[in-house]
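Data card: per-record layout.
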Amino acid sequence: MSREKQHAVDWIEANQQRLSEFDIAIWNYAEPAWREYKSARAYVDLLRGEGFDVEEGSGEMPTAFVARWGSGGPVLGAYAEYDAVPGNSQVAEAYPAPRPGLHPWAAGHTDPHSMLGVAGLAGVLGAKAAMEHYNLPGTLVFFGEPAEKVCGSKPIHAAKGYYDGFDAFIAYHPWPRNTVEWLTQFGAYWSCVFSFECKQPETWNDLSLLPDGAGQRLAGRVPGAIDALVTMYTTTKMSRGRSTS
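The structure for this 245-residue chain is written out next.
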């Protein structure tokens, strides 16, 4: 291991307790998608305390942020996710048990994005410490990405140009092996919106077949768009993980 990498590792080990306590704080907030106000504030305050220039509400998203430190190249990016999952309220036990005072369907970090985000944060702060110590050039950019479970902020950041100009982007996520995936990405474009619209519903019914007096009041009840939505969802759900060939 190079002396620069060793310095980063040493910094992380020296700050292990502080980072662990921060992880527990995010875990306890357990805020669902687009409602991560306390979690985002905690990240913003910590990063500013570490000398980062932080843009709050990046991409017009109240619980997103972009933190920058350094100058010149290479420009390296990383990110934190911190949205909790509804229906996963859980105490730190190996059996189902919602946190005291909360409904079992409340949000929780059993995923846990609380830890994923702090692990990414630790890597960036360790890199910053090594860059400062050895006077290494470069820029670190750390994103706060809310609503990941619903493909929320990353597509918006990408569409608005926040991901332009990077030399490398590091996504931390536990996996059975360490790997670098050059031809894939971390979900920045895994989001789309389907619109189903029933145009001219008044033409769907043969009014001559309706009982006398029914009239046009049934026309607006034709569920064409809903049928299309249900059909798409059902066929997609049933074919997941199966070959279509």
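Known properties of this structure: The chain has a mean pLDDT of 87. Strands lie at 53-56, 65-71, 75-81, 138-145, 168-169.

See the next section for split statistics.
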